[in-house]
Amino acid sequence: MMIKKVLFFVLVLVNTISFSQTHTTYKPERDKINDLVHTKLKVDFNFKEKQLNGEAWVTAKPHFYATNKITLDAKAMIIHQISLDNKKLDYNYNYDDASIVIDLPKEYKKDEEFTLYIKYTARPEKVQQKGSAAITDAKGLYFINADGLDKNKPTQIWTQGETEASSCWFPTIDSPNQKTTQEIYITVPKKFVTLSNGKLMSQIENGTDRTDYWKMDQKHAPYLFFMGVGEYEVIKDSYKDIPVDYYVEKEYAPYAKDIFGLTPEMIGFFSKILGVEYPWNKYSQIVGRDYVSGAMENTTAVIHGEQAYQTPGQLIDENVQENTIAHEIFHHWFGNLVTTESWSNLTLNESFANYSEYLWREHKYGKLDADMHLFEDCQAYLDGQNTDKHLVRFNYVDKEDMFDLVSYNKGGAILHMLRNYLGDDAFFLGLKTFLTENKYQAAEVHQLRLVFEKITGKDLNWFFNQWYFGAGHPRIEVSYDYNTIQKKVTINLLQLNVNEFKFPLAIDIFENGQKTRHNVFVNGNDASFTFPYTKQPTLIQINADGVLLSEITENKVLSDYIFQLKNAENYAHRREALLEVAKKQEEKDAFSAVEAAMSDPSYKIRILALQKIDLINKFSKKDAIHKIMQIANNDPKTLVQATAIETLGKLTDPELKSIFEKGLQSKSYSVIGKSLVAMYYIDKPTAVAKSRELPDEIRKILATPLTRIYIEEKDENELPFIAKSVLSGMFLTGEDTTKSLYQKAFKQISESNNSEAIQNLVDDMVVKGTQYKSFNFDKVVINLMRTMVNDQKAKDTANKVRNTEIIKEGMAKLL
To answer: What is the spatial distance between Cα 318 and Cα 278, in angstroms, rounded to a whole number?
Structure first.
């Protein structure tokens, strides 16, 4: 499962829920009284009622102890019939709308199989369980535009099983420590394509309908079952002799391989580094409308949210789904082949998938690119309310709480530290051994530790106790003592955290233009290390390789940061230095260092330098501006070009018009967007005219720069267009300037006479308020609607009554 990262942070802000660790009673995985063996399903759909008509044959056997009962999870269903081993008589059972407790006619012994037949109706709209930060809803089965009334949205069906929502659409033992083979017959109108786990065995037409038969012979957990239904085009690809398919709407079929085309290479790369060949018989990816998360690793049938849809003008800047694509592929080893035996051990699924993003980027784009990604993941964890959460957590409040920045980001960083400590050979051999020993089974973290200990001969209890079964991270205060007579420097490390951490640490000492790397091991809260020098060091860099997940405090002056910006190996340290140096650009050396950083190997450093450079500064002169012009024209990254244009645009200099005109011809939408805004401030008619010439699909993608122009223009005619992006701009962005822009846009729409804009904004509020209701986002938008009602009352406009009715109708849908 891949979290919608931006959404996660936003909902933490607007939500009243606390994500800090609350110590409750121990939460074990449920006992395995019976084991699933095989699941056979036959389903069709009632689109009008948003229900599934199902038949299930569930084959099971006692795990160890003899039993005459079985309990199946089945949420909000109507149970029509239950039979046993093809005997057409109902057995005694008790159903409480959540689970079925069935009395068997005899006591079954270990490994004695039996098959239950259950005829049922699944009613996902009646399901009561809540979602999580990663998965915003939990009703298992989703009908999208089921009545077809929304002409702008296709009719689709898709499922979402994690954590325990597969039992919303078929009876099962809905636990990650269960494994079952499966087959499913899906009957749909012939116009629809279907997707499920495993291989499509047959398709049989019957009048206006068609039944697709999917079969999977390898065992996997019930939460990984999947069905997808819709009008899709299937784009064919392959890895070796394994089919790799991309299910996309017709509009995006030409771009499917641009979006997903690295999939075969990713499968091959992960197979090679893990030493375990991709273990399944196909790999399909489908894009679902209104999907409740970022993506989900259903075995051989991955679903992505519609943010995966991108056009060449976006992909030239960055494929925003690439990390997610890698993440879900890696789950097919960690999560699907070997599954966490309990949600407490979720790190065995999500931490590994998170770290796979680093591994892929390191392989494909180099270590610098991977380190940039790791920094952002670590920073997100450090910025969150996570310091009291264990990675392996048995005392969670709700299993959904496990899907957080500890299980994902911190867990990925911990694997990076473990890899660094053990070395690549031992680390990847450990992964191979763990996967091989536990394939098609469930496992827990202790098994991972024991594998690494067996391979390396090292005791790793200290590592797992502090990182997996403990909380927090080192918070280190650094000081230096120089003995100028003996020419030695002592580095003092004081941990300020409550827990004592032990860890390896890289220290770089720069002296006489040379760098020396010292690898030390910190064994307590108060540690010191002494090194000789010939000439007093120019800089000492702690955690020089950036591997240790930590917060480090030390006293540095401007000259230290300038040197660090130019010479530090690790991306995070150069970034830190740039932010500090940029604060002192009234000093020429600092300004020159920021200017030089615009040529940094890291494109994100280049972007940051362009954003921070002070062109009003007395040192800026023509040479810095000329350099930015060159970047705007020639930087290999279009995102850097766009930032350079944005920086030049702040000068409002008509002499730069040719740069912006060239930008408007770019294939990159980010470059076009920044060029439009820059052009607006020196030639408004040209910018406005160009904005209106853009095709609707590009206007939608460039909503933020166009909103900036139309708000400045006070253009009432464009308010309906702006209204569709207001909520996303206010809440789903991390940029303060963008939030401020859309707050201004909200106010302008709220006070306007434009009923179409009011309707578009209210419609979006209802959709997002409903979609994220489990995070109290409905209350946020209701309060915004109340503000709109008050704004309308305060205005004497022709449509005041109608606009107020529109807003109140929206409120009624959410209340």
So the answer is: 27
Output 666 or 697, whichever has higher pLDDT: 666
Q: Which strands, in side-by-side order, build the sheet including 526-532? A: 526-532, 488-495, 475-483, 551-553
E strand or H helix at 353: helix 347-365
CA distance 308 to 58: 35
Q: Which residue shows structure tokens 């899907």?
A: 403
Distance CA 413, CA 377 (A): 8
3-state SS track over 410-422: HHHHHHHHHHHHH
- Average pLDDT of the residues of the chain: 93
Regarding beta strands 180-189 and 34-46, do their DSSP bridges make them parallel or antiparallel, or are they unpaired? Answer: parallel
Q: Are 682 and 657 spatial neighbours (Cβ–Cβ below 8 Å)?
A: yes
DSSP for 743-809 reads HHHHHHHHT-S-HHHHHHHHHHHHHHHHHTGGGTHHHHHHHHHHHHHHHHHHS--TTHHHHHHHHHH
- Enter the tokens of residue 282: 């196909």
**Largest alpha-carbon pair distance within the chain?**
95
Q: Which domains does the chain have, with CATH numbers?
A: 36-256+279-300 (2.60.40.1730), 342-467 (1.10.390.10), 475-555 (2.60.40.1840), 702-815 (no CATH)
Give the model's confidence band at 18: pLDDT under 50 very low, under 70 low, under 90 confident, else very high.
Answer: very low
| Whether the predicted pLDDT of 23 surpasses 80 | no
Contact between residue 299 and residue 338 where contact means Cβ atoms under 8 Å apart: no
